[in-house]
Automatic annotation (TrEMBL):
This is DUF6114 domain-containing protein. It comes from Streptomyces coeruleoprunus. The keyword Ribosomal protein does not apply. The lineage of its organism: Bacteria, Bacillati, Actinomycetota, Actinomycetes, Kitasatosporales. Residues 163-177 have a biased composition (Polar residues). The chain crosses the membrane at residues 28-47, 59-79.
Length: 177
């Protein structure tokens, strides 16, 4: 190992941040995060017991199992968006459908918080597209940004409206001029 290698001189936190940024840029990161965060309140609120001073607020409902299933599925879909980009469209559609089902099943979709997060995450997943890799050589990028000039026609095609035409044997029309 030489003393000039960049890996040796960089701080490990800077290397981690750069690698995380590259990882995050190659997948629908925010879609997965919103979907994952949307599943947590949907699964949590039916089983939560909130204390407001001396008053205990419990949201135990008969739909607790359905809420738990929807929440766990949304968390799983969020992780799937991160680690399996090929199924991002399916995961996005499934997230939107589960978010809509959570409205009647899971206390208005986790008091609308989980519903909105899962809905936005699903929409982001459907709309995300992988970026195009940049060329290694700067000449390729420069040529791609230069607008192409329009070539002028080299021949004169005659008058615009030629009325003397005959039918060719192959079905086309030839000018009889």
């Amino acid at each position: 190992m030489s003393a000039e290698s960049p890996e040796q001189n960089e701080h490990y936190l800077r290397v981690f941040k750069r690698r995380f940024r590259d990882w995050r840029g190659s997948r629908p990161f925010w879609a997965g995060l919103f979907t994952l965060l949307g599943g947590i309140p949907i699964a949590y609120f039916p089983y939560a017991t909130l204390q407001l001073g001396q008053m205990t607020l419990s949201m135990a409902t008969t739909a607790g199992a359905g809420s738990l299933i929807i929440g766990v599925l949304l968390v799983t879909l969020g992780l799937t968006m991160w680690f399996q980009q090929a199924v991002r469209i399916f995961a996005g559609v499934a997230s939107i459908l589960l978010a809509l089902v959570s409205i009647p099943v899971a206390n208005l979709g986790g008091f609308v918080i989980g519903f909105l997060l899962a809905l936005v995450g699903g929409a982001l997943s459907i709309s995300w597209a992988p970026g195009e890799p940049q060329g290694d050589e700067p000449e390729e990028r420069a040529e791609a940004t230069v607008p192409q000039q329009r070539a002028e026609p080299a021949e004169d095609f005659g008058p615009m409206y030629d009325t003397g035409t005959t039918v060719d044997a192959n079905g086309g029309r030839n000018s009889a001029g």
